[in-house]
């Protein structure tokens, strides 16, 4: 599996520190604590490629990992964490917005949402932005192990229905890092975006 070979590339505080804007990039975004870092670790089958933590807001830099010379994966800082100082929030917001709007090699955004509270106002902002610039978004409803099958399924159907109304480029699936559920579907979407 190609994704298992991912390796750490850079932690950037500013966009200017990122590698040249060529090749293919996929960004992982979502609220703080949604399980972004865990999902990347699971997808890449590595225990600590990304730092995970019980303290929300831990990932404050743009962390990049490379699959090969032309394919990269980006772990974006989580948004919406209330306890982060206002000035810092604004700085992240600006960097995040700039990355998403200017990065030409960006093929799509994997949007992670805790299945117990999907489609928060911040998620909707992200989706609205993506819709406006025709950016594909694949939603991972994370921590699916926290719900029983029935409620998990109906949440997925509800989210799919809402996404469909917004853009034909939006898709969603269930995902659980602790159960390692949803991996083939996630890999398939990434393959499509990375054109491999
Ligand atoms: P920030 O980087 O702080 O924005 O958070 P993050 O979105 O990267 O979340 P992270 O992967 O660090 O996970 C946050 C918490 O959720 C940790 O305590 C994880 O162990 C837990 N978690 C992540 N994925 C799962 C999952 O699939 N199931 C369960 N039960 N817990 C999970
Ligand atoms: Mg993280």
From TrEMBL:
The segment(s) forming the EngB-type G domain are 22-196
The family database entries (InterPro entries) matched by this protein are listed as: G_ENGB_dom, GTP-bd, GTP-bd_ribosome_bio_YsxC, P-loop_NTPase
TM region positions: none
Q: Which GO terms describe its molecular function?
A: GTP binding; metal ion binding
Please give the CDD domains that the UniProt record associates with this protein. YihA_EngB
The cofactor named in the record is: Mg(2+)
Q: Which SUPFAM superfamilies match?
A: P-loop containing nucleoside triphosphate hydrolases
Keyword Cell cycle in annotation: yes
Q: Report keywords, A-Z.
A: Cell cycle, Cell division, GTP-binding, Magnesium, Metal-binding, Nucleotide-binding, Septation
GO CC term, one of those recorded: cytosol
Q: Which domain of life is it from?
A: Bacteria
* GO biological process assignments: division septum assembly
Note the Pfam families from the entry. MMR_HSR1
Q: What does this protein do?
A: Necessary for normal cell division and for the maintenance of normal septation.
Give the matching HAMAP family.
Answer: GTPase_EngB
Family, per entry:
Belongs to the TRAFAC class TrmE-Era-EngA-EngB-Septin-like GTPase superfamily. EngB GTPase family.
What protein am I looking at? Probable GTP-binding protein EngB
Origin species, per record, is Pelagibaculum spongiae
């Amino acid at each position: 599996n190609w994704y298992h070979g991912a390796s750490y590339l850079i932690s950037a505080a500013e966009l200017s520190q990122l590698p040249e804007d060529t090749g293919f990039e996929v960004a992982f975004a979502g609220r703080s604590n949604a399980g972004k870092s865990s999902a990347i670790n699971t997808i890449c089958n590595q225990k600590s490629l990304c730092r995970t933590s019980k303290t929300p807001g831990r990932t404050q830099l743009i962390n990049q990992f490379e699959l090969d010379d032309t394919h990269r994966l980006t772990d974006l800082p989580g948004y919406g964490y209330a306890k982060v100082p206002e000035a810092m929030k604004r700085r992240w917001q600006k960097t995040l917005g700039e990355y998403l709007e200017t990065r030409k090699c960006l093929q799509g955004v994997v949007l992670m949402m805790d299945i117990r509270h999907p489609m928060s106002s911040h998620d909707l902002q992200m989706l609205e932005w993506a819709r406006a610039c025709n950016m594909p978004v694949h939603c991972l409803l994370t921590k699916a192990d926290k719900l029983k099958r029935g409620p998990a399924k109906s949440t997925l159907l509800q989210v799919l229905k809402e996404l469909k109304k917004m853009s034909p480029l939006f898709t969603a699936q269930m995902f659980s890092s602790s159960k390692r559920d949803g991996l083939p579907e996630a890999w398939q979407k990434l393959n499509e975006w990375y054109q491999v």
